[in-house]
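Hi R.,

Here's the input for the adenosine-5'-triphosphate complex you asked about:
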Amino acid sequence: MKEQVKILLVDDEHSSREPLALLLRKNGYHVTGASTGHEALQLLASEPFNIVITDLFLPDSNGIDILKEVKRLSATMEVILITGFASAETAVQAMKEGAFDYITKPLNLEELKIILAKAIEKHQLVNENVYLKKQLRDKYEFPNIIGNSPAMQQVFNLMKRVVKTDSTVLIMGESGTGKEVVAKAIHFNSSRRNQPFVAVHCGAIPENLLESELFGYVRGAFTGANRDKIGKFEAANGGTVFLDEIGTMPIQLQTKLLRILQEHEVERVGSTRTIKLDVRVISATNNQLEEEVRKGNFREDLYWRLNVIPIQLPPLRERMEDILPLARHFLVKCCEEMNRPMMNLGKDALEALEAYHWPGNVRELENVVERVAALTESNQITPADLPPNISGAFREPDEYSIRVTNSGVDLMKTVNRIEMKMIDEALNLAGGVKAQAAALLNLNRTTLVEKMRRLGMQR
Ligand SMILES: Nc1ncnc2c1ncn2[C@@H]1O[C@H](COP(=O)(O)OP(=O)(O)OP(=O)(O)O)[C@@H](O)[C@H]1O
Ligand SMILES: [Mg+2]
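And here is the predicted structure with adenosine-5'-triphosphate in place:
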């Protein structure tokens, strides 16, 4: 059932207030009356209202004061003013202060009904928006980022300090370690939380488009620019820009980015007008950015500008303690989404998860849990429910641990795999020189070449 709309009706004249209140109640609204400004302010302080309808002229104050107080109290409460005579100035002032609308006496009830319906619609939309924003914030609340390991606890401590500042942050970590989650958590827990968070995936945007994506352009800047376009930096003004895969940024754009960080202003492509910016920059990289600096692919001065506060996210295989809480967290989410009772992760299954090396890190774990939750009928998860590369069924043969069990082994395949692995290792050690690799394996060169041909190892 829809919640009843609560209206505060402020009018000092009993003879006009009561009939109006009666009419509104008949239309299904919950109406509270007040006859003075003082009474209205007291009610506003003690009860939640959705809409305020107030006379502009009150014996002890005026409707504008009430309007201001309402706007101070709530971002979603709407105010409709009633004026005794149409005065353009007061109407304009009222609208400037944020009144939804005004209506002149004598009241046209049909008009009031229409205005009221629109005000309620706006109230509900804004309310919903505030609610959605809150939901988004909740998603990036620190408790929803899982990490019991000392390494992650250290990351959280750092984040808690970082959210109180505007400092530039560089997040480093392998793919799937949670770089974007951390970037969003910083934004949504900082004072910029109600301003935009704009993510740019530098590696995914073609080089020739990246500049105009980031900085925007003006009409006529280049062929095809038939209108002005706002860039990501401008779009994020007041908020945060997240530059993902910063290491892939072409060198000439690095220069432009450096200027933004130094001067806090941007020019659209094809324009000389500078636009002031107030943007926090968080960037992320999964390659060793320092290495790129050494190779001359990344400007060193920019590196230091971006790396004011470094946050290093450890790979999942280095924080085994996090595997169980993360798996549980994703299981809860999946089971809720699928409307099934919470599943239980068996001890053997957990051991298999902890033994796996997780090249795709948290994202891979999330995918595995999703898959298991979707495919497992029983509420108890066993190793057999896990993908074979994790449960060990297809584990790379480890030369020292191969056992023939009741389920049997494929001798030829296993031997071939071991041969290939050892030849590969020998070739790597020998820098690809077959004669040397053969010597390492105590074979002669032709035998090695023949084996490689038979195994299909064309290097
Ligand atoms: N500590 C965590 N707690 C809960 N969920 C997490 C955590 N870390 C990562 N995730 C989840 O794992 C997935 C991958 O995270 P994210 O996209 O932030 O990784 P990334 O480091 O940006 O990866 P890539 O380098 O591939 O872009 C997301 O679905 C995210 O919600
Ligand atoms: Mg990412």
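One thing worth noting: The chain has 19 helices and 16 strands.

Cheers,
M.
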